[in-house]
Amino acid sequence: MSTIAIVIGGVAVTTAAVKAVGPVALGGRDLPDWFSSVVVLLAPALLAALVVTQALADGKNLAIGEETAGVTAGGLVYWRTNSIIWCGLVSAALTAALRAL
Amino acid sequence: MASASAGSKRFREGFREAVPFAIAGGMLAVSFGVVAQQAGFSAGEAILMSLVVFAGSAQFTAVAILAAGGGAGAAISAATLMNSRFLAMGAALGPSLPGGPLKRAAQGQTVVDASWAMSARGDGTFDRWFLFGASAVQFATWQAGTVIGALSADVIGDPERLGLDALFPAFFLALLMAEARTSRARAVAALGGLIALTLVPITPAGVPVLVAGTAALVGLTPSARADAAKGPR
Fold it and tell me: A42 and B89: CB-CB below 8 Å?
């Protein structure tokens, strides 16, 4: 079997397993109060981490690049317009424009 | 439990609301198709990977490691770490899923970042039909984009020049702004971002996001628990 085939199969299996762990372990139960109050805050924590790791890091280096400016502009546009479409268009367009300079 | 018609209504709502993410995902998938071929994948292998994995960041990670000369073990481990945030998301989602363990495991496969965040009801529970709908449209465009990228890699060239890599962080930022409506949520977001940035230089990719999830433990403070007991925002 080729290396690529092993990687495709391996990543498919581990992805499915990782996604299954929580639902299998914690499914079908009533939420204790403390669990709910943590879960409510999990989305802000994870979303913020996804934003900064994609916009402010390049591999293992912290870096400010064209996409940092694009993402910031997209955030400002969303704040002013509440439009996710314009947020995306502006972020990609500004990033592409800065790269073309 | 919601009736079948209520479920299909929520499915359609999730499907519709995730369309911007699906368009962005489709464009990102085009670049995945291109990048995978540059790393030595055939068109068929790139398409197969999107079909059976359906986790963009993990796919890009595995391909980047192979392209840099890494082995299968390194590529699989790094992609798995990249996916580790799904442990936290799945744990949060678990109590909202009905059925036996196998059925719940199958439903858990539909979790992708945007769908998970959008299907949160704000009281610690999740709207599973909304989640399924939001992921269905993203699955469709992820496959279509990969096929386009894999079959026209020569024409497309360097996908980075199009700025597509800014789309997802920009969308996550928009979701965050919509989600973080309380001062506590904004403080947790700041803490999560800070934890992730601190860990980027010293841990493997993927770990910073998972560990940033611990910022949500602020929810264990007495004032946060008192607010949660009052119900959704």
Answer: yes
